[in-house]
Every structure is written in structure tokens, then in C-alpha cells.
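User: Here's a structure from my thesis project, written as C-alpha cells. My advisor, Dr. K., wants to see whether a designed sequence matches the one we expressed. Can you design one independently, without my sequence as a hint?
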């Protein structure tokens, strides 16, 4: 056997996003790259802010000895303090650098957090639709993902979450703004979730963590504000990155932040620092750490994503698609005309349009469009979207 059975099973259930991305390679080879409209993967099309290039050039010209060597596994102390100041501003809870661990992106942060808290057989509860790599992240560390269905408006269904909590529950994992729906969970929901977890933790005799995946926090529209996780629940952790707001996903730099008043906070942080090392990350990239430490207040022009969102939503709505206008991210999640998401995504492929079936996010009957693409791709796709829904 070439690979472990567990990995073979993971490969068979691997990401629909990647499957569609690979289908796009085949379509481009057959029809030409300029004809295929690829909405399959959330790879930001906006360039990083000019300040990013300036800061990186200045850092590269710095010849201070050991500036590219190992640092403490949690990251440079000055960078951790810089990130903590920004988190304190966003979350409304005072945080020090000692509660922040610099990681290899938000995915690295989530794996560090889960390895730190999961015992074999523990469960992580998440609401669908969601990023289904969460299942692999939990399985990486002996746990299992337990999905519950969200509400029709894509808000969390707290009754369903409450019913899923058992003595095996180690964490509830949420993502807001949500990939793929673009939903921002309202403050009332977040505070009610915190109260629910407080009660469940007392009843079950274990601390259930609230783990928030927030790489899209700053990609929001129309004055929507993302509520504070730290203000709602003390046994909480946040994973984030600079992939979306600085448009540098390939640089793989992010952080994990632990609530300053979490139970056994110091032990939890020290465990996460150890896991950052033993998982093989060792530390986040040195150059990028120093760069983002100087760029906490910088962000891409979110108005560009809002404009793309409005163009697609208005056009698809006029064709007859049913969708919620996303409050954040750069994704649309319309209902699949006819109800079969896989069948409809295949119809779109006939029009040289690549989208991802909702089952790839734990919710059949929908499909995801990543609109972080050039305007020409959006315009070129519209006749195909119209034809696909008319011919269903």
C-alpha cells in the first residue's frame, strides 16, 4: 500500500474546491484560458497595498545579523505585541503579546489550537455550510468534526448546536464572515452562543472552547461590523491570517490569540507554542512576521470586492437565481436551480464556468462562486449563467 489507509480515505473525500480547480486546468487546456471563467478558489485577485511592497523592500535591505534566523517559537516578541494591540482594538478586550502565537496562516493556527486541546475521540462542533478542511484538521489530532445545520438565513442554529454538545465536545468552531455564505453572525447570536457554552461547560464538567476562524474579518460591506468573540466568551481562541486583508495568501502568516482570562491561560498558550514547534511549523516565516508587525492598520480596498459582489448579485438575481447578498468575504452561495448542486455545477461547466457544489461545504442544494476575480471574468460569465438557469 503506497499511503496510509487514513490518508487514502482523506484523499477520496478531499476538497471539492481543489477538484473544481483541477477541472479548470483541463477546461483551459481544451478551450483556452481566456474562455474559462474560474470561480472555484478564493485566491484574492487584488494586489497587496503599496505599503506592503515598501515595508518588504526595507526589510530586505536590513542587513542586521540573524534577521532571518530562528526566533522564539511563538514569534518575535515585538510582533506579538503589535498584533495584540490590533486585536485589542478589534475585539474590545485588552490583550498582551503573551496571549498571541504567530503561525503559518490561519490553517496553521487552527491545527495548533486543535492539537493543543483535543484528546482522542473528542469532537469539534461546526455549523454547515463551512470550510470542510475543518474535518481534516480535527482528524489530524485524533478528533472528529460534528456538523450541525445552520438556519435558512445562514445564521447559527443555537438549538442544534446545543443538542450536539456532549461530554466528548472539546470545541465549537465558527467562521464569521462565513466561507461560503458570506454571513456575519450577529452580536446577539454570538453572545447567546457564549452563554450556551458557559452552561454546557458547567453541565458537562469540561471547558468547551469557542474557536473562531476569522481571516475574512475585515472583508465586510455596507457598514456591517463583526462582533467580538473575546467579549462574548472567555474560553475562546481566534485564528486569523493576513491572506485576505493584505492579499498575501501565499506568504502563509497568521496568528492564534487566546482570551486573556481563559481557564489555565498560561498552560494553554504554552501548549500551543509547543504544538507550533512539534507540528513542524517551528515558527512563522521571519520576514513576513516583521512585515505584518508593521502593517496592522493596512488593508486592501474592500470597496473593490463590494463592487464585484453587487455586479454579480444584481445580474444573477435578474436571471432568477435565489441568493442572499453576502455581508462579507468574496463568495456568493446561491441555491442550485433544480436542487441538485452537483448536476447544476456540471451544467455550468458546459458553459465554461467553474463553481463549487455546496456539498463541498457540508450543504447540498447550493453552489459557491468565488468572485475575487478580474472584472472581465465576471462579465464573460454572465451569458453562461443565464443560459444555465434557462436550460435546467
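Assistant: Designed independently from the structure alone:
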Amino acid at each position: 500500500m503506497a499511503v496510509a489507509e487514513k490518508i487514502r480515505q482523506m484523499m477520496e473525500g478531499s476538497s471539492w474546491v481543489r477538484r473544481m480547480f483541477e477541472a479548470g486546468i483541463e477546461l483551459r487546456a481544451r478551450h483556452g484560458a481566456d474562455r474559462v471563467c474560474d470561480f472555484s478558489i478564493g485566491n484574492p485577485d487584488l494586489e497587496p497595498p503599496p505599503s506592503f511592497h515598501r515595508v518588504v523592500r526595507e526589510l530586505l535591505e536590513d542587513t542586521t545579523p540573524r534577521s532571518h534566523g530562528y526566533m522564539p517559537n511563538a514569534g518575535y516578541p515585538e510582533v506579538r505585541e503589535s498584533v495584540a494591540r490590533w486585536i485589542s482594538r478589534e475585539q474590545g478586550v485588552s490583550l498582551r503579546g503573551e496571549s498571541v502565537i504567530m503561525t503559518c496562516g490561519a490553517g496553521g493556527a487552527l491545527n495548533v489550537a486543535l492539537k493543543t486541546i483535543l484528546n482522542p475521540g473528542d469532537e469539534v462542533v461546526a455549523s454547515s455550510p463551512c470550510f470542510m478542511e475543518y474535518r481534516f484538521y480535527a482528524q489530524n489530532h485524533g478528533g472528529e468534526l460534528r456538523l450541525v445545520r445552520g438556519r435558512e438565513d445562514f445564521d447559527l442554529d443555537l438549538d442544534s448546536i446545543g443538542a450536539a454538545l456532549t461530554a466528548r465536545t472539546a470545541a465549537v468552531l465558527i467562521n464569521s464572515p462565513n466561507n461560503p455564505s458570506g454571513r456575519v453572525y450577529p452580536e446577539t447570536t454570538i453572545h447567546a452562543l457564549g452563554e450556551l457554552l458557559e452552561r454546557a461547560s458547567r453541565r458537562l464538567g469540561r471547558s468547551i472552547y469557542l474557536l473562531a476562524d476569522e481571516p475574512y474579518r475585515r472583508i465586510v460591506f455596507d457598514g456591517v461590523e463583526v462582533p467580538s468573540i473575546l467579549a462574548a466568551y472567555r474560553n475562546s481562541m481566534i485564528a486569523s491570517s493576513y491572506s485576505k486583508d493584505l492579499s498575501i495568501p501565499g506568504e502563509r502568516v497568521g496568528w492564534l490569540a487566546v482570551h486573556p482570562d481563559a481557564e489555565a491561560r498560561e498552560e494553554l498558550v504554552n501548549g500551543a507554542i509547543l504544538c507550533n514547534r512539534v507540528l513542524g511549523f517551528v515558527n512563522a516565516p521571519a520576514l513576513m512576521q516583521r512585515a505584518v508587525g508593521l502593517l496592522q492598520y493596512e488593508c486592501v480596498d474592500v470597496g473593490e470586492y463590494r463592487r464585484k459582489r453587487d455586479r454579480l448579485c444584481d445580474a444573477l438575481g435578474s436571471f432568477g437565481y435565489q441568493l442572499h447578498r453576502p455581508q462579507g468575504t468574496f463568495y456568493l452561495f446561491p441555491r442550485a436551480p433544480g436542487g441538485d448542486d452537483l448536476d447544476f455545477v456540471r451544467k455550468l461547466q458546459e458553459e465554461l464556468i467553474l463553481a463549487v457544489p455546496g456539498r463541498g461545504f457540508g450543504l447540498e442544494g447550493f453552489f459557491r462562486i468565488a468572485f475575487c476575480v478580474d472584472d472581465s471574468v465576471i462579465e464573460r460569465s454572465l451569458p453562461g449563467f443565464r443560459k444555465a438557469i434557462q436550460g435546467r
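When you compare it with your expressed construct, this may help: The CA atoms of residues 39 and 370 lie 5 Å apart.
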